């Protein structure tokens, strides 16, 4: 068996020479050291060296030849023409793809390999994306994944190294390989467990289930099976005489140096060398403590330095502040300080530290803003500082000033206030706070005018702003006043209203609003005549104001909507013409009377008896449509007896003295005009018989 192992190693050595390192073994040295940098003066170090694992490429294939190389078996489904996109190396990089020639089981198997001393297998792997077209449709069920397995009994039994489980949720993220989503190319390496160490080890990629030939496809590329070498490696340290050495050494190092070791395998075919440097630091390490000064930056600060490496004899030099061997410097104010620490070995440190000012007196003032604009009712409360010695004095400046020992200030107008607090030691704290202006209570008012000048149907709606509820609303005018909590007022007459709004904080805002009424509609018209003889045309002159529509009623059953209508009358009578003038529902009415008649008539009697019997006792006229009339009566000698100026007048036979005239004949003259403009110029006699 030893002869067989030596033969294999010799062959492996030949392969190293022939293949320019494809089967590299010892690749380097790994060091473990207690410290690779020592403090000033040096120290002991302990170093352990190990050769980096010597391995052999037992089998590998990148499938760039368009198929598998000797040493492989593949299912008929395996194709090498990149049917579903580029390989891990790009579009020109062929890979093995399990396509749609057959359904699962699909498998790729290596030949028996010598893995007697263990090793690992590495490869690129990708699943197709679920839902794509064949042969690029990916696994999406738990049993459609791919196993990587090993066997030491020529495939009679297999043992699982890893199972690539599909992402059954359908959510893909190829940037996270190994998270259950393998839809992007990624490289995977798996170490062979000790149970798989043998010289007949087989590796097996195996898919047990699929939904059919056109489903659940996958691929691999760049497979490399690395077998560990079984040879031992012998160490040789350069600074130690003789050979072999142990892998662990100890040394006391005081200056920069390095240690080199060479590992050689037992048959002298493979070596690897490594060197580890050890440095000695010339810096003195130290710790420090800075003490801040008191308030007002008084010189009460301190700087304490303590060296922690190098020779115990130290010199501490504070630049511009003296030197000593203790490292303590007092009576310092705040600021940056530069210093140097040195020992007897010429190790030193040059550095700087800041001494911070003493903790400030931190104030935390709170304020209450002005509630109502112009009220000057803001407040400031400073509170007791966390640092300082009581008693404290509080001072504020700004739009208003104040000083007290409580820190509470009230009745303040808005603005920026600057606060100074002084403690019993004279230390001060400064701060500022803004008291904001109280919100201006505002309103948005909507006034709706009345529909008609004579209607009380206006409204006002008040909407507050910048205030705090609840609100009270008050309106006043010379004719009306009311209070509401809703801000809505209705059934208002036209006029100017004063508005007062009071919010929940008592803030008051005044405003005004006006309710307007449309112009007063006045109906008025004039007929071309107030009387006449039918048939007649009467023209109506419309002198209405602020109207937009007109309704006429001519009192004879006829109407009109014209502005200035004309109307033909064919019947007699007294007609009361009506005009309704309107504008947006508001209206006014006007009337005019027209008297219309037939032709005029005037009949004069020639006798009457003034005897008081009730029959024909007076001289009176039969008439129609007489508009002008005058009758004068004379006796036979031409003396004027009586005058009548209205056609309806009657003569009772008495003279101007009120006495009956004598029986006889009397003369009359009549001048009259009829409604039809007919003139009557009559002269005649009338006989009177008086019963005395």
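Sequence proposed for the structure above (692 residues):
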């Amino acid at each position: 068996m030893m002869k067989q192992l030596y033969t294999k190693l010799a062959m492996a050595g030949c392969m190293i020479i022939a293949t320019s390192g494809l089967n590299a073994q010892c690749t380097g040295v790994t060091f473990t050291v207690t410290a690779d940098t020592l403090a000033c003066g040096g120290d002991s170090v302990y170093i352990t060296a190990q050769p980096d694992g010597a391995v052999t490429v037992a089998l590998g294939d990148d499938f760039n030849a368009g198929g598998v190389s000797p040493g492989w078996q593949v299912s008929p489904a395996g194709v090498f023409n990149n049917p579903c996109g580029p390989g891990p190396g790009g579009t020109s990089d062929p890979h093995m793809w399990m396509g749609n020639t057959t359904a699962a089981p699909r498998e790729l198997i290596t030949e028996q390999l010598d893995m007697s001393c263990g090793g690992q297998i590495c490869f690129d792997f990708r699943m197709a994306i679920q839902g794509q077209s064949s042969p690029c449709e990916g696994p999406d069920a738990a049993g459609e994944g791919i196993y990587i397995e090993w066997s030491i009994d020529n495939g009679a039994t297999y043992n699982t190294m890893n199972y690539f489980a599909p992402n059954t949720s359908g959510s893909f993220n190829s940037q996270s390989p190994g998270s259950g989503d393998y839809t992007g190319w990624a490289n995977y390496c798996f170490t062979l467990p000790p149970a798989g160490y043998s010289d007949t080890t087989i590796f097996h990629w195996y898919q047990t289930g699929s939904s059919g030939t056109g489903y659940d496809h996958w691929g691999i590329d760049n497979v490399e099976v690395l077998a560990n070498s079984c040879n031992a490696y012998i160490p040789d340290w350069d600074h130690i005489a003789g050979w072999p050495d142990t892998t662990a050494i100890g040394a006391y190092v005081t200056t920069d140096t390095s240690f080199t070791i060479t590992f050689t395998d037992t048959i002298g075919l493979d070596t690897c060398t490594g060197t580890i440097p050890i440095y000695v630091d010339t810096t003195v390490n130290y710790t420090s403590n800075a003490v801040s000064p008191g308030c007002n930056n008084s010189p009460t600060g301190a700087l304490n330095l303590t060296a922690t490496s190098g020779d115990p004899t130290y010199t501490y030099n504070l630049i511009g502040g003296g030197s000593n061997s203790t490292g303590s410097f007092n009576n310092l104010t705040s600021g940056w300080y530069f210093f140097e620490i040195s020992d007897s070995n010429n190790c030193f440190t040059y550095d700087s530290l800041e001494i911070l000012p003493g903790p400030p007196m931190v104030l935390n003032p709170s304020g209450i803003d002005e509630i109502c604009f112009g009220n000057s009712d803001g407040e400031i409360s400073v509170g007791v500082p966390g640092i300082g010695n009581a008693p404290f004095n509080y001072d504020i400046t700004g739009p208003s000033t104040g000083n007290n020992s409580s820190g509470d200030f009230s009745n303040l107008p808005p603005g920026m206030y600057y606060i100074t607090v002084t403690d019993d030691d004279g230390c001060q704290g400064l701060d500022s706070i803004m008291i904001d202006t109280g919100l201006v209570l505002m309103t948005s008012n909507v006034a709706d005018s009345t529909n008609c000048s004579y209607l009380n149907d206006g409204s006002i709606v008040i909407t507050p702003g910048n205030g705090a509820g609840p609100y009270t609303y008050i309106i006043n005018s010379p004719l009306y006043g009311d209070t509401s909590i809703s801000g809505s007022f209705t059934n208002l007459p036209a006029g100017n209203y004063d508005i007062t709004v009071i919010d929940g904080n008592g803030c008051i805002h005044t405003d005004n609003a006006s309710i307007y009424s449309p112009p007063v509609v006045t109906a008025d018209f004039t007929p071309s005549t107030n009387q006449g003889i039918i048939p007649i045309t009467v023209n109506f002159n419309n002198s209405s104001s602020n109207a937009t529509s007109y309704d006429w009623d001519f009192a004879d059953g006829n109407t009109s909507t014209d502005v200035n209508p004309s109307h033909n009358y064919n019947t007699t009578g007294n007609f009361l013409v009506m005009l309704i003038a309107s504008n947006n529902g508001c209206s006014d009415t006007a009337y005019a009377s027209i008297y219309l008649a037939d032709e005029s008539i005037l009949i004069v009697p020639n006798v009457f008896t003034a005897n008081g019997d009730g029959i024909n006792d007076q001289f009176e006229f039969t008439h129609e449509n007489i508009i002008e009339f005058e009758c004068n009566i004379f006796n036979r000698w031409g003396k004027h007896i009586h005058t009548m100026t209205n056609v309806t007048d009657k003569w009772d036979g008495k003279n101007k003295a009120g006495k009956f005239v004598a029986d006889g004949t009397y003369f009359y003259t009549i001048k009259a005009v009829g409604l039809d403009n007919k003139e009557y110029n009559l002269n005649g006699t009338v006989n009177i018989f008086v019963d005395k």
